[in-house]
Amino acid sequence: xxxxxxxxxxxxxxxxxxxxxxxxxxxxxxxxxxxxxxxxxxxxxxxxxxxxxxxxxxxxxxxxxxxxxxxxxxxxxxxxxxxxxxxxxxxxxxxxxxxxxxxxxxxxxxxxxxxxxxxx
Length: 120
Known about the structure:
By secondary structure, this protein is an alpha/beta fold.
């Protein structure tokens, strides 16, 4: 397997989940500006499309796939998109998608807490 140096992202392929805002958006932006080919993902399709539009034309290429990263079909679509769009499997996956609970963990429904824990 080829070594991947942390500072050399040119011609690398990445998938970034939770990319529509915050840390995920910043990571996706940094990777594209460093020359990485990036598949971005989040549930908020409009914000994701806006990020794709903003980053198109930078050093790397970007493709967006809207959907819930906790859904296996979406994960498969992310991998397929990287393979079809960039010609091979990704070198890097940034699993940044996350969810939170409203209210206290102690009083929250157990299934909601377990879902949040699984996703995060």
